[in-house]
Specification:
The complex is a heterodimer of chains A (343) and B (313). Chain A is of the alpha/beta class. Chain A folds into two domains: 132 residues, NAD(P)-binding Rossmann-like Domain (Rossmann fold); 163 residues, Dihydrodipicolinate Reductase, domain 2, CATH 3.30.360.10. In chain A, 39% of the residues lie in helices and 20% in strands. Chain A contains eleven helices and twelve strands. In chain A, α1 crosses α10 and α8 packs across α11. Chain A is globular and about 55 Å long. With 313 residues, chain B is of the alpha/beta class. Helix content of chain B is 39%, strand content 24%. Chain B has twelve helices and twelve strands. In chain B, the strands form two sheets. In chain B, strands 1, 2, 3, 4, 7, 8, 9, 10, 11 and 12 form a ten-stranded mixed β-sheet that branches. Chain B has a two-stranded antiparallel ribbon with strand order 5-6. In chain B, α1 crosses α2 and α7 crosses α9. The termini of chain B are far apart. Classes of the chains: A alpha/beta (343), B alpha/beta (313).
Chain lengths: 343, 313
C-alpha cells in the first residue's frame, strides 16, 4: 500500500484526489491547503491528516511514500525541494518550475535523492495521442516532416457555470512565470518532443490581445535537433470555449501520409459520454473495475498519468516523464521568449 | 406607460457608431436634462470576454456615447465609466483586458470601480421578499446615469439587457448570492436605481452564437428596452419571468411602447434564436444525469463540473 499526501487542493488537486480513489494500493493519508472548504472535502473522502501549511504535512511523521503537488506555478520549486528533502516521491503538475535555473536545480535534487519525480504531462496519456504515436512508430505516415499543434481555449479565464474568481497569481508575471506559452504551450512543446525529439526555436511571436504583461497567445516554430522535422505551435488563452468543448488539435504530417487528432477524438462528445458511461455502468454491475473518466475523452488522461506514477514507484521503474523532460520544455519556452524579444 | 425605443443599424467604424447613437437619440427625442456636470456610464463587463463574443459592451459604443455626451453637455463634463466587481470578475483587470484603459486615456475620462465606492445599504420589498442591496453612492449622485448594456441571452433569465445591467451596479462583488431569487433581485435593484438613458450595444449580440447585428437601441425606459429586446431575440416578452414581475411591481408597462427606426421583424430574423427550454434547463438536466451516474457508478466528475453539480440542487 502506498501512502500519499496532497499538497494543494485547487482544481487539479481535487481531480487527482478523486482519481486516487480508483487506483488500487493507494491510501490517501494527508492533505494540505489554505482553504478550509477544500480540506473539509478531503476529510469527506477519508483523508484524516489535514494541514493549512504543506510544510507541516512534510515534517509530520506520516510514513508517506509520495506527494502530489498541485500548487500555483511559483510554489512548485520550493515545494518540490521540500518534498524531495523529506525523502518522498513527487508527482507535480506542470510546469516543473517557472525558470530554467529552478528546473536544473530540481533535476540535481532528484538525482541526489534517488526518488522518483513525474510531471503531469497528461496529454501524452490521451488516447488519441497514444494512437498517433503508435501510428507514427509503426511507419504508417512515413518520415515525420511537420507537426502542427494548436490549443486555443480560455486558459485561466475559463468560466464555470458556478463562477469563481480567476486566481490573482495569474495576473502577476513573476508568480505565473509566463502566459499562454508557459501554460498551454508547455504541453504542446512537450508533445513535439514526444513525437520528434529535442528541438530548437526557429521563430516565435507573442500576442497581448488582453493588454496584460503576460502573453495570451503565441506562435512558435520548432526544429528538431536530430532530424528535419519542424513543428508549428499555436496557443491562445483568448477564446471563449465552454466545457466539454476543447479546442486542441494535432496533425503529424509524414511523407507517406498523415494522422490527425481530429479523426481520433469523438465527433459527438455527448454521445461518447453516454456510450462510455453505459459501459462503466455495465462493468460496475458485473463487479469489474470501471474506466474512470472515460466518458470524457480528455480527463481520463489524468487518471492514466497518476496510475503510471504509482506503478513506477511499485515496480521501481523510471516514470515516462522525468524532471529532465520538464527542464527541456522550459528551456525551449525561455528560448522562445528570447527569440521573440530579438524579433 | 412604455416609452419610445429607437432602433438604428450601423457599420463598425467609430464615426458610424457615433452617428447611429445620435440618430437613435433623435428618434427618442432625448432631452433629459439641460444642465449636466457629472455622468456615470454603466457598461456591461460581466467577464473577461471580448465584445466580439457578444458578452461585453464594445468600447467603440462607449466612445460614441462619450462623444455624444460632450456634444450635448460640453467638453468639460465629468464622465465616469463604471462597473462593479462580480463573483468571478475583477473590474481593475477587466478594464485593462477589454480595452477600457486605452479608451479612458484617449478620451480623458475616468474609470471607476463601483465596488470601491461608498456603499449605501438599501432594502426593497419585491413579491413579498425583502432584499438588501449595497448601492454605490456615485450612481445616486450623478447628474446623468447612462446604462449601456449588451443584447444577449442568458440561461437563468432567457434574455438579459437593460434591467439586468442595472443589477450589475450592486456594489458587493458576490452577486451570486442573489441568483437564487434573480428575478426578484433584478426588479428590486431597478426600484432603487433609475437610468436616465439606456443605449444598447447590439453591434455583436449573443444568441445561440454571436451575431453581428450592427444594432444600437435607445430609450429612456429600461423596461421598454427589454420588452423590445425580447421581441428582437424571438421571445414573447410577456413570458419572460423578470419582465412579468417588473410589470407587477410597477417598474414598467408595455402599454404605449413605440418602436421607431429599423424594422423589428427583420432584426428578429437575423438573431440566432435559442430554444428557451434548452437554454434554461439543458445544463441543469445534464448535471443531474451526471450526478446520478457518478453516484451509481462511483466515477469521478471533472473539476469544471463538480461545483456546478453541488450547486444544481
Amino acid at each position: 500500500m502506498l501512502n500519499v499526501g496532497f499538497i494543494g487542493l485547487g482544481k487539479m488537486g481535487r481531480l487527482h484526489m478523486s482519481n486516487c480513489l480508483h487506483i488500487d494500493g493507494v491510501r490517501m493519508v494527508a492533505a494540505a491547503d489554505r482553504s478550509k472548504k477544500a480540506l473539509k472535502r478531503a476529510k469527506s473522502l477519508g483523508v484524516s491528516n489535514l494541514y493549512i501549511d504543506y510544510r507541516d504535512l512534510l515534517s509530520d511523521s506520516l510514513d508517506l511514500d509520495a506527494v502530489i503537488i498541485s500548487l500555483p506555478n511559483f510554489l512548485h520549486f520550493e515545494s518540490i525541494r521540500s518534498a524531495l528533502e523529506a525523502g518522498l516521491n513527487v508527482f507535480v503538475e506542470k510546469p516543473l518550475a517557472n525558470t530554467v535555473e529552478e528546473c536544473r536545480e530540481i533535476v540535481k535534487l532528484v538525482e541526489a535523492s534517488g526518488r522518483k519525480l513525474m510531471i503531469g504531462h497528461c496529454m501524452r496519456f490521451m488516447e488519441a495521442i497514444e494512437k498517433m504515436k503508435d501510428s507514427m512508430d509503426k511507419g504508417h505516415i512515413g518520415n515525420l516532416e511537420v507537426v502542427t499543434i494548436e490549443e486555443v481555449i480560455n486558459g485561466p479565464f475559463a468560466h464555470a457555470a458556478v463562477p469563481s474568481p480567476v486566481s490573482e497569481w495569474w495576473f502577476d508575471p513573476k508568480k505565473a512565470g509566463g502566459g499562454a506559452l508557459l501554460d498551454l504551450g508547455y504541453h504542446l512543446i512537450d508533445l513535439f518532443r514526444f513525437f520528434a525529439g529535442d528541438c530548437r526555436v526557429l521563430f516565435s511571436s507573442l500576442d497581448h490581445k488582453f493588454n496584460l504583461p503576460i502573453e495570451d497567445g503565441a506562435i512558435v516554430i520548432l526544429h528538431s535537433i536530430g532530424s528535419s522535422t519542424k513543428g508549428i505551435i499555436n496557443v491562445g488563452w483568448y477564446q471563449k470555449t465552454v466545457f466539454p468543448k476543447f479546442n486542441l488539435r494535432l496533425i503529424l504530417h509524414g511523407n507517406a501520409g498523415y494522422v490527425s487528432s481530429d479523426d481520433l477524438v469523438p465527433s459527438n462528445l455527448y454521445f461518447h459520454a453516454i456510450k462510455q458511461g453505459t459501459k462503466n455502468l455495465f462493468l460496475k454491475i458485473v463487479g469489474k473495475k470501471i474506466r474512470p473518466l472515460s466518458y470524457t475523452y480528455y480527463y481520463e488522461s489524468y487518471y492514466k498519468e497518476l496510475k503510471h506514477f504509482f506503478d513506477s514507484i511499485r515496480q521501481d521503474t523510471h516514470p515516462s516523464i522525468s524532471a529532465v523532460d520538464g527542464l527541456k520544455t522550459i528551456e525551449i519556452i525561455e528560448e522562445a521568449y528570447k527569440v521573440c524579444n530579438r524579433n | 406607460m412604455g416609452s419610445v425605443v429607437g432602433l438604428v443599424r450601423t457599420q463598425s467604424s467609430e464615426e458610424q457608431i457615433r452617428d447611429a447613437i445620435s440618430k437613435a437619440l433623435e428618434l427618442i427625442d432625448f432631452n433629459a436634462k439641460n444642465s449636466v456636470n457629472s455622468v456615470a456610464v454603466k457598461v456591461n463587463l460581466c467577464y473577461y470576454w471580448h465584445a466580439a463574443t457578444g458578452y461585453t459592451t464594445d468600447p467603440r459604443v462607449v466612445a460614441g456615447v462619450i462623444d455624444m455626451l460632450r456634444e450635448r453637455y460640453g467638453k468639460d463634463i465629468g464622465i465616469k465609466i463604471v462597473e462593479a466587481d462580480a463573483t468571478a470578475m475583477k473590474t481593475n483587470h477587466v478594464f485593462l483586458m477589454l480595452g477600457y484603459e486605452k479608451l479612458a486615456n484617449e478620451k480623458k475620462i475616468e474609470l471607476f470601480n463601483l465596488s470601491h465606492d461608498n456603499l449605501d445599504e438599501k432594502r426593497v420589498n419585491v413579491n413579498g421578499r425583502e432584499i438588501m442591496f449595497k448601492i454605490p453612492k456615485s450612481l445616486l449622485e450623478a447628474d446623468l446615469f447612462v446604462n449601456v448594456p449588451k443584447l444577449k441571452l442568458m440561461g437563468a433569465t432567457i434574455i438579459t439587457c437593460a434591467l439586468k445591467n442595472v443589477f450589475g451596479c450592486i456594489g458587493s462583488p458576490r452577486k451570486i448570492v442573489y441568483h437564487h431569487f434573480l428575478n426578484e433581485a433584478i426588479v428590486g435593484i431597478n426600484k432603487i436605481l433609475h437610468p436616465h438613458l439606456t443605449i444598447v450595444d447590439g453591434l455583436t449580440a449573443l444568441g445561440r452564437s454571436p451575431v453581428r447585428l450592427g444594432l444600437i437601441m435607445a430609450s429612456c425606459d429600461p423596461f421598454s428596452i427589454d420588452w423590445v429586446a425580447s421581441k428582437i431575440m424571438g421571445y414573447d416578452p410577456s413570458r419572460i419571468d423578470y419582465l412579468k414581475l417588473a410589470r407587477k411591481e410597477g417598474i414598467g408597462s408595455p402599454n404605449g411602447i413605440k418602436i421607431l427606426g429599423e424594422d423589428l421583424e427583420k432584426l428578429r430574423k437575423m438573431f440566432p434564436h435559442a430554444n428557451a427550454f434548452g437554454l434554461k434547463w439543458s445544463n441543469k438536466i445534464l448535471l443531474r444525469l451526471l450526478k446520478f451516474y457518478s453516484a451509481i457508478v462511483g466515477d469521478t466528475v471533472p473539476p469544471e463540473l463538480e461545483e456546478n453539480i453541488n450547486a444544481s440542487h
